[in-house]
Predict the structure.
Amino acid sequence: MIAKLVALVAGFIVATISTLGYGGVLLLMAIESACIPLPSEIIMPFAGYLVFRGELNLWLVACAGGLGCVLGSLVAYWIGAWGGRPLVEKYGRYILVSHHDLDAADRWFQRHGDIIVFVGRLLPLVRTFIAFPAGVARMPLVKFIVYTFIGSFIWSWALAWIGLRLGEHWDTLGPWFHRFDTVIVVIAVMAFVWYVWRHVRNLRRSRVDS
């Protein structure tokens, strides 16, 4: 079932880029950055394959990928900025998110948002969802756009370059990157367990103090 779904998604990606060229790269990367997990590990290597065939230019492909990421990320950013915080404030207690946690996230993004967004754009899976919390924390928009583009350009160029080097075998790249997805999921689960433990511990302390 999963294999069929991946094949269907890959076929959609190939058809879109084959038909629209740079516009297809921009569109697909925008979708991927709007919190919709469309795999850039397929999008950009296939674009690199078309560079290998002489149909596209590597640097223009990377620019299209970076610009698409910015456009899609702005959608997720604005959703987080204008609707995300009230939603989290209202229902956050059900997922163990307190006002203190939101305030801490705000301070963290204000101080370190540039490096968070930049590094997040270089990580599989994380890059798809990083724009929403940046919006919730109201990270300065200009910084968000600049670091989103820089990180996304590097990611897009690197994947397209690998696709170029692989040539006819570009489609072998995806499974390797999805191994990194698994590692990141494991780390995220461990972080979540730690977060729940810290939240419960603080709750117990507050009850004792009161």
Summary: The chain is about 80% helix and 0% strand. The chain has a mean pLDDT of 76.
